[in-house]
Amino acid sequence: MAAAQNRNAAADISLPTNYRAPVFKESSELQRVLADSVNATVAASPGFKPVDIAATLIDLRDTSNLTWANVAGEKKIYPASVVKMFYMVALERDLESGKVVSTPELQRGLKDMIVDSSNEATQYILDVLTGTSSGAELPANEFEKWQFKRNRVNRFYTALGYQNINVNQKTFCEDAYGIEQQTRRYKGENRNMLTTNATARLMAEIVLGKMNTPVRTRSMLDLMKRDPFAVSTDPDSQALGFSGKALVDRKMTTARLWSKAGWTSKTRHDVAYVETGEGSKFVIAIFTENHANRREVIPAVVDKIIERLKKRVEVGS
Distances from the Cα of 181 to the Cαs of 189, 218, 242, in angstroms? Predict the structure, then answer.
């Protein structure tokens, strides 16, 4: 059972040592960069509406003066596989504190969850994190105890100051059954929900090393490292099918990319950390709804952001 691998599933996930939440200052200039990039993309995308997109941009060039901007950044949206980054961070916290025992199988599951975006691996990881498992529906009093354990990851992010999110559900290729429907209240309720603000913040905190030790930070980044210039025939490759396409189209072979994408039949999302090689370092989270097959929208926004940020670097702003 998953609880056997989690030595203390009843205890909450430990916060990072000496943790302090990052302070992101609002920047009118960065807001123009993001809003102009989003608006120009929407205007050039027939059938795409402003309500169909949310985005958050964080400038990481100066880690002592973090600035950010957003477009609908607090809108709660079903995150698809982007939620797996949140589970990765929680698992690494448990591994560091010794509450979860590492095994080759656990490391295989973690890798497959982030690199291949495996839903089956994610189901296993969430079982380990929460000491719960899928199965038959439970009577109300037993279900309440089960649900408290399943909310363990939520409590961790709440303690870190994250708001307006829900991260307590497994991801499935098809539908959920039994207790997994019971936890959704049988009506699609209580589903995972994220905002682009929360998603961009977590990526930035990983990059800044605020979530764990340097060794574990490198491990997480290694799992999210993407090579958009690698040969691929998959149009939904996390490296090429999302933010990375902007780097390829611009022939930015010296740029570096770390990301976690997610998509369903109705959504298409990406969160990425990009170092352009021209001086820009930024996190961008883009969630789109109702246009899952519009593969051009996310890279188009990123392309425009890169162009606008390049001008800021050139003038030394």
Answer: 9, 36, 31
